[in-house]
User: Which sequence fits this backbone?
């Protein structure tokens, strides 16, 4: 089924939609803090799915972190502390990626087979991400539209995300650090992107470019190119 293009201002109805990154300001100041694919005028996947451990943060939440967790005010919410006094947080560019995705109308989902879903949820509640205005911050968990965090396989996670967000596999891109989870591409039609050292601008750009190659009909908005 062909994918239709639409700008964020028309959001809210169809699940077969590509968001137009060209409708957002591409000022040089903003662009320098974004993945390049977010400001090049080509559409983005509608749904970005991220594994957690060694994808959004550099640890196994169910192995390395000792509950309970507490906020770390001195870091402005960029880190949390566990019972042992160790500090934990996202890879450095993850907050900016989440902000950019939200500002462009993209949906965000988490897909983790962690055995400590309650701890992963606490981590996402306590870690803070600046809001779009830059004047304040809010819990990272508020940026996510679907949370699939439980033991099992990633195919099940993808199926449930599709149902919750009313989307198709061709609208989804999935970032994960384990090569075996590439089976989601065949089983569910998502675009799978293997990350080596966590999600950052470069990894997002590589993933989006691969997603665009998979959907050769994607054209620059307003140009026909």
Assistant:
């Amino acid at each position: 089924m062909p994918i239709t293009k639409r700008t964020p201002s028309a959001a809210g109805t169809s699940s077969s939609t590509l968001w137009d990154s060209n409708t957002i300001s591409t000022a040089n100041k903003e662009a320098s803090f974004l993945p390049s694919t977010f400001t090049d005028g080509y559409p983005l996947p509608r749904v970005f799915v991220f594994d957690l451990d060694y994808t959004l943060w550099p640890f196994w939440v169910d192995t390395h972190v000792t509950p309970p967790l507490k906020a770390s005010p001195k870091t402005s919410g960029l880190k949390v502390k566990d019972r042992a006094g160790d500090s934990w947080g996202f890879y450095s560019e993850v907050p900016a990626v989440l902000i950019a995705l939200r500002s462009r109308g993209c949906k965000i989902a988490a897909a983790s087979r962690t055995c400590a879903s309650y701890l992963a949820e606490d981590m996402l509640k306590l870690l803070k991400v600046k809001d779009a205005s830059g004047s304040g911050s809010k819990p990272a968990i508020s940026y996510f539209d679907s949370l699939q965090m439980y033991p099992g396989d990633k195919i099940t996670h993808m199926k449930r995300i599709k149902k919750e967000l009313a989307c198709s596999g061709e609208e989804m891109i999935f970032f994960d650090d384990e090569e075996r989870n590439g089976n989601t591409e065949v089983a569910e039609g998502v675009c799978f992107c293997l990350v080596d050292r966590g999600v950052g601008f470069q990894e997002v750009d590589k993933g989006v470019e691969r997603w665009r190659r998979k959907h050769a009909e994607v054209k620059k908005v307003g140009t026909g190119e």
